[in-house]
Every structure is written in structure tokens, then in C-alpha cells.
Design a protein that fits this description.
By secondary structure, this protein is of the alpha/beta class. It has a single domain, classed as Ribokinase (UDP-N-acetylmuramoyl-L-alanine:D-glutamate ligase). Helix content is about 35%, strand content about 25%. It contains ten helices and 13 strands. The strands form two sheets. The chain has a nine-stranded mixed sheet with strand order 5-4-1-8-9-10-11-12-13, sandwiched between helices. It has a four-stranded mixed sheet with strand order 3-2-6-7. Helix 8 packs antiparallel against helix 9. It is globular, with a radius of gyration of 20 Å.
Length: about 325
Amino acid sequence: MKLNRLRRLLAAFPRQRILVVGDVMLDQFLWGKVSRISPEAPVPVVEVTNESFFPGGAANVARNLRALGGGVKMLGALGDDAAGRQLRDLLAGQDVDTGGLVVDPARPTTVKSRIVAHHQQVVRFDRERTEALPAPLTNEMLGYFGAHLNSVDAVVFEDYGKGVLSQTLLDTMHRLARRRRKITTADPNSRHLLRYAGLTAITPNRTEAFAATGLPFAEATDEVLADQPLLRVGGQLLRKWRPANLLVTLGEHGMCLFRRGQRPHHIPTVAQEVFDVSGAGDTVIATLTLALAAGANPVEAAEISNHAAGVVVGKIGTATCSPEELLASWSRDRS
């Protein structure tokens, strides 16, 4: 794809409206430095120098969509707590429509806290509950989904296994979206295996792809198109999930796009440096969906999402990619 084609697609991004459905969370980062080991236990003592908060999980997908210029509606569940109010404010501050965020007073807002010292994550601790949402809240989400579906171009299902997406909710929402000819994409979770059927695109990583087939995990090889276990998994998932596009993300080996009736297409990584892979999958599903909605073909959309992922892994923490950064990455790769 030529640079002018990418520019035309990026110019269409702000006209797209995306509905993100899934597990929202608040990402907390405690930044500091280590200068000694604790006398109480053989662990580093981190002197905290700064603290920051970002939308995480499905909310990070929304954040990535906004960074690229797309319009976003967010549908998910918060707790009735300070973290939930802070997350809603963060999203609203980035012009994400938060009208679809329901409140469950019986559960806390999911918070992931990471301690980072000298550009390295030292430890992460999570505060969450993962049981399914109560039926009244599920019905409230369905009501919002049906009322706003006509105003969007695509729907992203982002499952982090925190209880928002159930099989019944996914099936019902996807059926409604398909009936109205919307683009539908999903980022699955290896610990909460839902049955996906007939979506426009699904973006598992290697671990998630193997888990979804039940085949034993096999380590990657340098030659992706000669990676027989991966090719077998891709073929099985095309038959099992019947997506129009299956994009398996492979870390340092890039991505592999599988489509029925066509040969797998390998997209090598363009990442120059990898500092942090936190949230890279969110960037991939956001960029892929937005590109498809803007009129990109599947290969173009996959290549654009590959460049966006290459940008964010070069940053510390859950990060986003701007159109300017995407263009710079594209130009650098072709120079």
C-alpha cells in the first residue's frame, strides 16, 4: 500500500463511529526507582516518584480509537466507587461517549496497578471480581446497544474475562449487528473461551489461538508461513469461528492473516524497540476495526494495525498511536 492510500484512509478515520463492548478497567502506574534491596525480604524497594492513571481493558480500545480520530461509544460496567468515577471522567475527557457504562454497586471497578522502575515493570496487582453481571444490568446494556446500533459503523467485542461478556450477550448483540450489516470484530480471552461465529474479524494472539482450538501450545518459528502448528490452528479457527478474517498476532514475528479460500498472509513486525507490550492487543483491534470501517481491505487494515502496534510497544505503559506516528512508521519502513 502506498503512502497516499494510507493518508486517504486516515483522513476517513474521523468519520467512523465505533461501539466498544467489554470489560473496562482503570490502569494505575506507580513510577519510581530502585536503589536498594529490602532488609525485610529479598525484594527491591521502589521509591515512588510519580503516579498516573489511564483507561484500561476495553476502555483502552476506546482510547486508542480516539487517538486515531474515530468517534467512540463505550458499553461496559463500573463499580459504584472512586475508581469507576475516575475512569468515567478519564474517558469523557477524551471525548468518549460514556452513556453506555452501567453501574454495578455489588462489584468494584477493575483496577490494575503496576509498579515500574527504570523502565521495567516490577510487579502488578489487580483488584477485581469476575462473576457475571446480574440480569437487570445485562438487559440495560442490551437496551443501550439496540438503541445506539444504527448510529455506529462497527462494533468491537473486547473480552478480558471480567464478567461483562457472556455467551448469550455476545450472541444477541452480534445477531443484531449482523442484521444491520455492521462490521463486527472481537479480541478473545484465553481464560474465558466464548464461541465466536461469523464476525468480520477476530484478533487472538498466539496463546489465545491455540487455547481456542484445544491443541497443545507450540513455540513460534522464525519462518511464520512454515510454522505448521500455527497454520493448523489458523485453519481450525477458520472452520470453528467462521470469521471473514482471522488475524493472529505473533509478537516479534508480526502477524498472520487467515481467510477462507486464500493462503495465509504474513506481516512482519515493524517495531524498532520493545519496551512494554501492555495494551498492544487493544491497539491492534482498535486500528484494524477503524481501518476496515474506513474502507481498507483486510490486508491493508492488518498492515496498518501492525504499524500502530509497533509504535505503542516502543512506549512505557498502556499507550496509543496517533495518525502522525502511524505515518512516520509507515514512511520509515519504506525508506
